[in-house]
């Protein structure tokens, strides 16, 4: 059955994607006719493709590369792309190549729930703030490979700190202030930041929240792991910065503006670095241990982002992007790279439903003339569930500048695809996109040369040789699915520049290999998504959820290990074992985190235990981590013969999928119990209220 078509670009031959196709035809004497032709060429000619993107999209480098990629380069260990080149990531965002930027034009608008708190920053002002901040960081001892962290909301000061770290060749990592102390320390203790930027307070859901107590606790712990300097951003003037209290912990503490003013009046100098120099650390949670700290490279991140934003998304200096994201999410890093196309940014921090209810963000889109709006699938389904139609609201919104809406973090339901074209202008390119923290970018992308079809991601991104692997096949003999449209595991078969450099810390390469190259072998990237490709020619993807133990309620990604760690720390005397998975049935709009516990002998499970677990998870991690279902596992936790929890099978059972696992089950009766529980839940939900 063919998915119904919702949109086509009004002028596809006027897009940068079409111009790139013609460039390839001209350079190589080809006759590529459409996107499927261009995509096939890009994955068949990996080195030629990425070299052409480097020049066509515009990468500023002080030294050109000697070669794009060595012949027959493997996927693991990670190959060295663009060997010999020297460049700086921040320079490419602040002084973008192939983009005519007026330094007096607005580069960044910072917005919150407070309508009166909009602040504009021009390109000249942004460059000067990065000059001052990078010089202050340099004076504080930050150099190449130092770690600079931000416990910060999405605002221009966070962006300046990020770009300043990149200017010096330091590594940036960002964590949103809605995370609890345990969640922050589980991440930052591993990477030992030298400098921490933190907000004094945040505005969320109509309330102002002090961040001082949490930050003091974090700084006290990090002081034992190399933290030297704390910079407090005074985002809300009614809250104290607590500088003396931080200084009493034995660190240097400065208010943000004073820190910038303390720098020497030196010019802005961009350290020129190899393409594989580390740029960002993001965190991917799994089913065991601490969150894994993924190191992403400067050139890989820059080139992949610019390919996606310039070619797939058609960004230009006339564009303005607002992506509703926190600083923890990879979409923050992706969206700030819009600067490399000369586009301006709207950095928003707060609830999407304040101060004007469901119309809060649409009003902002209208007011700020946003052209590209990014959000989560959960946000769009909420608008649909509440019949919110921005183009028909009493506010007379002007969404005439809006060109694209991007939805990610979880699959967008088919009905929501259709709803968006009722609620927003019909000319908008609605793009459900997918990728992730692991690649800090996209596997499934927008495309101005293809239609939008109900329920489908438009295409595989150029240069990303994705395929669908039979989930039941083994690592010794991996097999692709044999039928078009068959469900399976998303894999990538050829190297790509935004592969992570490594995982931070001891045994980083072993963790890297285990995460992506253990399941199907060292030349097949296993991404952990469950997908199908209905039409291999067009490359449209349908996302079916995660195929591993990673949880994504409302698009917020974390691992079951974070829940297990809380149970161990706070319920070790009561809970013997547990299994935590995500449930998303065909009818569900979002994933529900389901936690099943096995109580220790003599300890009972009741409503009090359920309530206490929820409260502690909320306090130690965040409200988004709290399971929607907390029950006792009457049949125990299903495990393999070597004692590993079989989370994927439990997830498949609860989600109404066919159970496909290559693992042998030591206690099959546990799986039978979950099948019975799922049936009983279905029956209970069918009963009238």
From TrEMBL:
Domain AMP-binding enzyme C-terminal: 566-644
Keyword set, alphabetical order: ATP-binding, Ligase, Nucleotide-binding
InterPro entries xref list: Acac_CoA_synth, ACAS_N, AMP-bd_C, AMP-bd_C_sf, AMP-binding_CS, AMP-dep_synth/lig_dom, ANL_N_sf
Domain AMP-dependent synthetase/ligase: 97-486
Taxonomic superkingdom: Eukaryota
Transmembrane segments: none
Entries under PROSITE patterns matching the protein: AMP_BINDING
Location of the Acetyl-coenzyme A synthetase N-terminal domain: 35-92
Record family assignment: Belongs to the ATP-dependent AMP-binding enzyme family.
Listed name of the protein: Acetoacetyl-coenzyme A synthetase
Annotated organism of origin: Podospora comata
């Amino acid at each position: 059955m063919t998915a119904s078509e919702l949109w086509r670009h009004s002028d596809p031959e006027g897009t940068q994607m079409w111009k790139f196709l013609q460039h390839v035809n001209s350079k190589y004497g080809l006759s590529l006719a459409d996107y499927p032709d261009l995509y096939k060429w890009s994955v068949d000619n990996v080195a030629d493709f990425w070299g052409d993107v480097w020049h066509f999209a515009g990468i500023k480098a002080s030294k050109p590369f000697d070669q794009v990629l060595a012949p027959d380069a493997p996927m693991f260990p990670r190959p060295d792309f663009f060997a010999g080149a020297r460049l700086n990531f921040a320079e490419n965002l602040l002084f973008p190549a192939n983009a005519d930027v007026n330094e007096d034009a607005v580069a960044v608008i910072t917005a919150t729930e407070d309508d009166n708190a909009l602040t504009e920053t021009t390109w000249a002002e942004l460059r000067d703030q990065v000059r001052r901040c990078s010089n202050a960081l340099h004076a504080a001892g930050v150099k190449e490979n130092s770690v600079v962290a931000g416990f910060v909301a999405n605002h221009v000061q966070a962006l300046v700190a990020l770009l300043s770290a990149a200017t010096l060749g330091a590594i940036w990592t960002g964590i949103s202030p809605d995370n609890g102390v345990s969640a922050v320390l589980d991440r930052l203790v591993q990477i030992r930041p030298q400098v921490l930027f933190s907000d004094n307070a945040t505005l969320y859901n109509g309330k102002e929240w002090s961040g001082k107590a949490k930050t003091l606790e974090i700084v006290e712990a990090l002081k034992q792991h190399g933290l030297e300097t704390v910079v407090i951003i005074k985002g809300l003037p009614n809250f104290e910065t607590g500088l003396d209290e931080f200084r009493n912990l034995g660190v240097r503490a400065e208010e943000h503006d004073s820190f910038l003013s303390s720098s020497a009046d030196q010019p802005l100098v961009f350290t020129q670095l190899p393409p594989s120099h580390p740029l960002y650390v993001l965190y991917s949670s799994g089913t065991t241990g601490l969150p894994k700290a993924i190191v992403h490279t400067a050139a890989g991140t820059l080139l992949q982002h610019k390919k996606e934003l310039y070619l797939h998304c058609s960004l230009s200096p006339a564009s303005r992007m607002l992506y509703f994201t926190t600083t923890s999410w990879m979409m923050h890093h992706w969206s700030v790279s819009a600067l490399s196309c000369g586009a301006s940014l709207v950095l928003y921090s707060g609830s999407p439903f304040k101060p004007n209810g469901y119309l809060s963000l649409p009003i902002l889109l209208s007011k700020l003339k946003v052209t590209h709006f990014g959000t989560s699938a959960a946000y769009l389904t909420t608008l649909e569930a509440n019949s919110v139609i921005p183009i028909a609201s009493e506010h007379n919104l002007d969404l005439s500048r809006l060109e694209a809406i991007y939805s990610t973090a979880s699959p967008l339901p088919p009905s929501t695809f259709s709803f968006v074209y009722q609620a927003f202008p019909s000319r908008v390119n609605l793009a459900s996109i997918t990728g992730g923290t692991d690649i800090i970018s996209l596997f499934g992308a927008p495309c101005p040369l293809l239609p939008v079809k109900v329920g489908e991601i438009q295409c595989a991104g150029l240069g990303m040789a994705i395929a669908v692997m039979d989930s039941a096949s083994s690592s010794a003999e991996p097999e692709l699915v044999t039928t078009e449209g068959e469900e399976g595991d998303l894999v990538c078969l050829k190297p790509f520049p935004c592969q992570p450099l490594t995982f931070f810390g001891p045994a980083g390469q072993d963790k890297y290999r285990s995460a992506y190259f253990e399941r199907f072998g060292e030349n097949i990237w296993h991404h952990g998504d469950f997908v199908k490709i209905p039409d291999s020619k067009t490359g449209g993807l349908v996302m079916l959820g995660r195929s591993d133990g990673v949880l994504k309620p409302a698009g917020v990604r974390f691992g079951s290990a974070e829940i297990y760690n809380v149970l161990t720390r706070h319920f070790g005397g009561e809970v013997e074992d547990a299994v935590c998975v995500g449930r998303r049935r065909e009818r569900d709009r979002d994933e529900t985190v389901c936690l099943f516990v096995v109580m220790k002998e003599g300890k009972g499970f009741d409503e009090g235990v359920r309530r206490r677990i929820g409260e502690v998870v909320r306090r130690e991690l965040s409200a988004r981590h709290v399971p929607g279902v907390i029950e006792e596992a009457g049949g125990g936790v299903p495990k393999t013969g070597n004692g590993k929890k079989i989370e994927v099978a439990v997830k498949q059972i609860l989600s109404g999928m066919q159970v496909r696992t290559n693992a042998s089950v030591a206690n099959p009766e546990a799986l039978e119990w979950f099948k019975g529980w799922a049936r009983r839940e279905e029956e209970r939900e069918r009963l009238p209220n």
